[in-house]
Write a structure and sequence with these properties.
The chain is mainly alpha-helical and 117 residues long. Helices cover 67% and strands 0% of the residues. Helix 2 runs antiparallel to helix 3. The longest helix is centred in the C-terminal third of the chain and has 40 residues. The chain starts with 12 loop residues before the first helix and ends with a helix.
Amino acid sequence: MATRRIISTERTILDKDDDDINTGPNTGVAGQQQSSSTAPAVPMDVILKLLAFTFAMVVIPIGSYFVTVNTIFRGNSTYAGGLAAIMANVVLVGYVIVAMNEDQSDQLQAKKGGKKD
């Protein structure tokens, strides 16, 4: 039977793992941690827009259904449900348009910043 001898100068798997931890991507010098950014990944205005459109996606279709089922459509829930579906799509399209405009404005600001430098 053949067995493998461990030579004392050779590193074992456990030693290699310890070295990877001490010189990982967030460390500059072995064993010293660099500070990480604590800034939020998503800006606050984006979160507020998402919350506003989430609220609108819940309230507008349901509200339009209950407002129109007895007033405009005189008890016909099919038409009121159709209007609620249309209103949900209107809110969704509005969100897509706002998100696309926000993305374009970020790109324009990046281009303006690049030309000035």
